[in-house]
Amino acid sequence: MRNFPTVLENISDLNFDQLQSLILLSKKFKNGDIPLGHIEMSTGESPIIATSFLETSTRTKHSFAIAIKRLGAMYIDFNAEASSLKKGESLEETLLTLSHQGVGMCIIRTSVSHQLAEFKANPPLKIINGGDGVNEHPTQALLDLFTILECKHGPKNKTIAIIGDCIHSRVGHSLCSLLPQFGMKVILCGPEEFLPKNIPNNIEVTNKLEEAILKSDILYLLRIQKERHQSKSLPSDEEYHQQYGINLEKLKRFSKLLPIYHPGPANIGVEISMEALKSPYYFGYEQVKNSIFMRMAIIKSMFHS
Ligand code: CP
User: Fold this and answer.
1) Of all protein residues, whose CA lies closest to atom 3 belonging to ligand 1?
2) Which of 62, 184, 194, 271 could link 190 by a cystine bridge, Cβ 3.0 to 4.6 Å?
3) Taking CB atoms and a 6 Å cutoff, what residues make up the pocket around ligand 1?
């Protein structure tokens, strides 16, 4: 028994042994070494699992839905817009209600950073953070690590440049917490106003794209989260692409045709060109494929620990 947390809010909720076991289990699911549709609770019943996305999502929500169904659990798509949350009900009361209806786990996306922390002391059900404000997106970082390992791009003794709106990126924060544990060096790169000010000692920061590319083995691109910016003086899409966008011509100029990762959604012509996205250097769709296996591993581990 590895005692997985009841609430997975941040990467730091998992110890190194748990992180390693999630990678191993994802691999087993991907290789077909474990039969699908066999998840059950201690009572022997198949669990009911809900997703509650209070912010938009394509990848995270659907890959969790597929993972839940492949595990043979019942899936509830909790529609927050059509729920009593709209009548002023709190998230806590919503989760208590779902738990009394037999729901055993809820995957939540919220615009409020750290909103899930309050449930850790007395969780009404199992909770997975599907992205909370500008805090973390732990399951995305875990599936990224699984992809980096699988595609043999690292992580040990390799350097990843996370380029873009680092200050607002929840997956960026999760990657900074996760990848150094596996021996990977992280460089954050972007315009000054996109770079966090309080950075751990083991993370490098630069506003010089060329320097970041030349030092790196993998590029990890982030979109500009315009919805989270107060400032009206953001660079235009063209200016940003010129200075920090990745296209093949730029990488060839630096003699660095590196693997390109992106959590999605990508803004074409801003942080990445269409040519780069459709090239063999782009691994965003490998991340998407692997997301199902990692999320199956996380759900199963949280029910079986
Ligand atoms: N990577 C990610 O979280 O994508 P979605 O916003 O589409 O879920």
Assistant:
1) 60
2) 194
3) 57-60, 131, 137, 140, 263-265
Domains 7-136+288-303 and 152-282 fall in the same CATH topology: yes
In whole angstroms, what is the distance from residue 45 CA to residue 48 CA?
9
Spatial neighbors of 80 by CB under 8 A, at least 6 apart, are 52, 53, 54, 86
**Segment-wise mean pLDDT, segments of 10 residues, the chain, 305 residues:** 91 98 97 83 85 94 97 91 82 95 96 96 97 97 98 96 96 98 98 92 96 98 86 84 97 96 96 98 98 97 88
C-alpha 43 – ligand 1 centre gap (Å) = 33
Q: Which CATH class is domain 7-136+288-303?
A: alpha beta
Please tell me the pTM assigned to this model: 0.96
Instruction: Return all residues near 62 (Cβ < 8 A) that are at least 6 apart.
Output: none
- Where exactly are the structural domains of the chain? 7-136+288-303, 152-282
If one residue of 66, 107, 140 were mutated to test the ligand 1 pocket, choosing by the most ligand atoms within 8 A of its CB, it would be: 140
Question: What's the CA-to-centroid distance between 161 and ligand 1, angstroms?
Answer: 20
